[in-house]
């Protein structure tokens, strides 16, 4: 089991930026970000493969969010630009070590470990 710790959430005005970080206690094959707004189901945001660096984004964040990783630090980042009020949610980091394709990583069931979540609030 890998322990995940997120940081970087906060309150920002619409149009602003935030960068989330997620540090893993060990090496994993892939990591992803999900979010859950009040009264809504958890949804996929972005994923990144560890070795090849391949990435995959939800349509709602494509062009505004960028996922990246620092393998030496076992850390993944989510740079969020042009934030909108509808981006308000608790953001969760997830990690796994199985052999899924990058496109399968939009499903939460493909991940083994989850972080505790960090709140992102975008004011209008």
Record the SSE blueprint:
Elements: E1 4-7, E2 10-13, E3 18-24, E4 30-36, E5 43-49, E6 55-57, E7 65-70, E8 75-80, E9 89-96, E10 113-114, E11 118-123
Parallel strand pairs: 2-11
Antiparallel strand pairs: 1-3, 3-8, 4-5, 4-9, 5-6, 7-8, 9-10, 9-11
Protein structure class: mainly beta
Helix content: under 10%
Number of strands: 11
Q: What spatial form do the alpha-carbon principal axes imply? A: globular
Counting DSSP H or I runs of 4 or more residues, the number of helices is: 0
Our Rg estimate from Cα atoms comes to: 13 Å
Unreliable stretches: none
What is the distance, rounded to the nearest whole angstrom, between the alpha carbons of the first and last residues?
39 Å
How much of the sequence is in beta strands? over 45%
**Major sheet:** 7 strands, mixed
The ordered H/E elements are EEEEEEEEEEE
- How much is the average pLDDT? 94
Short description:
With 124 residues, the chain is mainly beta. Helices cover 0% and strands 48% of the residues.
Provide an overview of this structure.
It contains no helices and eleven strands. The chain has strands at residues 4-7, 10-13, 18-24, 30-36, 43-49, 55-57, 65-70, 75-80, 89-96, 113-114, 118-123. The strands form two sheets. Strands 2, 4, 5, 6, 9, 10 and 11 form a seven-stranded mixed beta sheet that branches. Strands 1-3-8-7 form a four-stranded antiparallel beta sheet, with no helix packed on it. The radius of gyration is 13 Å and the shape is globular.
């Amino acid at each position: 089991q890998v322990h995940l710790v997120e940081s970087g959430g906060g309150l920002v005005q619409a149009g602003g930026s935030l960068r989330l970080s997620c540090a893993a206690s060990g090496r994993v094959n892939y990591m992803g970000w999900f979010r859950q707004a009040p009264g809504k189901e958890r949804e996929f945001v972005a994923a990144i493969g560890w070795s090849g660096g391949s990435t995959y984004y939800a349509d709602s964040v494509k062009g505004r969010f960028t996922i990246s990783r620092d393998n030496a630090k076992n850390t993944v980042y989510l740079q969020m630009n042009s934030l909108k009020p509808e981006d308000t949610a608790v953001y969760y980091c997830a990690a796994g070590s199985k052999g899924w394709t990058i496109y399968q990583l939009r499903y939460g069931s493909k991940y083994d470990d989850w972080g505790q979540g960090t709140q992102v609030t975008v004011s209008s």
